[in-house]
Every structure is written in C-alpha cells, then in structure tokens.
Amino acid sequence: MDIILKQDVTNLGYKNDIVTVKPGYGRNFLIPQGMAILATERNRKILAEEIRQQAHKEEKIKNEALDKAKALEGLKLQIPAKAGASGKIFGSVNSIMIANAIKEATNIEVDRKQIVLNEEAIKEVGDYTAKIRLHKEVQVDVDFSVFAE
Question: pTM of this prediction?
C-alpha cells in the first residue's frame, strides 16, 4: 500500500515522502492519526504541485537572504559602550545592540536570533566578529568595533 506522509514519521520517512507500508499499518494507524493519506493519482498530483510551490518560495527566500548578505559583506560597525578606564564595559554588548547598529548603518532589518557571537559575552573594548545566519545556506561575517563612550 502506497501512502503520502503528511509529517515526519520515525523509521519510516519524512513529510511529503511516498512510502510503501503494510495495509494494516496504513489503514489502522497512519491514516486515522492524520500522519498520512492514500497515494492515489489525484493526491500524487496535489503533492507534486505543493512541492513545486514550496521550492519556488524557498528560492525566493534564499535570494532575499543573498541580497542582504551582499549588502552586509565588508561592513564594519562601531558600537559605543560605557566603559571604565581599564577598558572593561559596564554590562556587555549583545546581539540586540548589533542588530540595532546594522539597522542604523544599512537600514536592513536583522533579527537578533540570526546573530551568533563567537564569544559568550563581550565585556571589553576591542574588535570582534559576529556571524549572521540569514538562511540555512547563507551566512555572512560582520566585523564590529566596541569603543568607550
């Protein structure tokens, strides 16, 4: 019996896969639980159209991420922070501050969750690098400098 999975099923397959299972397993468990549907000719055509549309959406999102990456490439940010005479910052520089600095410098919105800092917490004045993950396949490094106000 051929079925189309509507969600990931452990040891069987991933969403939108067409798999062959024993009739009892498909009819009595997978289909009633909403995990799968029968792989009729009509459902196969619907699945093919959904996959085509999803690929188009993914391509569009990836192209937008590539455009952002080109704009952010080679960017050098200046982030002010209150610091003592020894160069220690009162508090720390975090991803929110970096996202705000990018917004001011380039007018590009970057979610703070997309910013990955190499160090756990930046607590001193100096030069650092942050990795920005715009898409699962697109990431860019942004250099920034923390200076005392």
Answer: 0.65
Fold of 2-68: Ribosomal Protein L9; domain 1 (3.40.5)
pLDDT at 120: 77
Start-end ranges of CATH 3.40.5.10 in the chain? Answer: 2-68
- Give the architecture-level CATH label for domain 69-148: Roll (3.10)
Q: Please, which residues have CB within 8 angstroms of residue 11's CB and are 6 or more apart in sequence?
A: none
CA-CA distance, 62 to 82, in Å (whole number)?
38
N- to C-terminal Cα distance for the chain? Answer: 70
Give the tokens for residue 144: 């920034």
**Eight-class DSSP state of 113:** G
Q: What is the C-alpha to C-alpha distance for residues 7 and 113, in angstroms, rounded to an integer? A: 26
Of 41, 13, 15, 16, residue with least CA distance to 25:
13
Task: State the pLDDT at residue 119.
Answer: 80
Under-50 pLDDT residues of the chain: none
CA–CA distances in Å: residue 11 to residues 7, 8, 19, 22, 124:
12, 9, 11, 14, 49
